[in-house]
Amino acid sequence: MPDAAILTAWGLPGLFLVAMLAGSVVPIPSEALLAALIYGGAPPVLATSVATVGNVVGALSLYLLGKWVSRGGGGALGRWYARRRASEGPRMERVEARLRTWGAPALLMSWLPIVGDAFVIAGGVVGVRPLPFVVFVTAGKGLRYLFVALSTAASL
């Protein structure tokens, strides 16, 4: 991962990139960069919006992977997902069962570390429609970034 000073120098475009990668399977602490940018003077509402949109774009990549794999595609990515599903076994089955039971509102849990990615991928696998997917993932991830932004702003 690049040096934090470089990332803060990139400003909001850097935040978008980091949040997008964090929304996929790359473990990058986008919340720390959000806090650093707000501490450095970035407008909290704008920074929160940029981080949320970037993170949702990253989550869409996992959603599309889930849809692709559910249709029998995926190649190397499909094999990776099959291995991950096999290694996580019951947890992935529970996540998929929750999504089948609760539908798209279960995607509010997409903000959670590690398990959130499972919800996002499972959303594609079980066939959650794109619009509800985006709405609930945006709400879940946006609330997380809002909490970070408000905490940071309150500490200034």
UniProtKB/TrEMBL annotation:
One of the Pfam families matching this protein, by short name: VTT_dom
Keywords per UniProt: Membrane, Transmembrane, Transmembrane helix
Origin superkingdom: Bacteria
Membrane-spanning intervals of the chain: 45-65, 102-127
Stored InterPro entries: DedA_domain, VTT_dom
Domain VTT: 28-151
PANTHER family per UniProt: ALKALINE PHOSPHATASE LIKE PROTEIN (PTHR42709), INNER MEMBRANE PROTEIN YQAA (PTHR42709:SF4)
Protein name: VTT domain-containing protein
Organism: Myxococcus stipitatus (strain DSM 14675 / JCM 12634 / Mx s8)
Lineage of origin: Bacteria, Pseudomonadati, Myxococcota, Myxococcia, Myxococcales
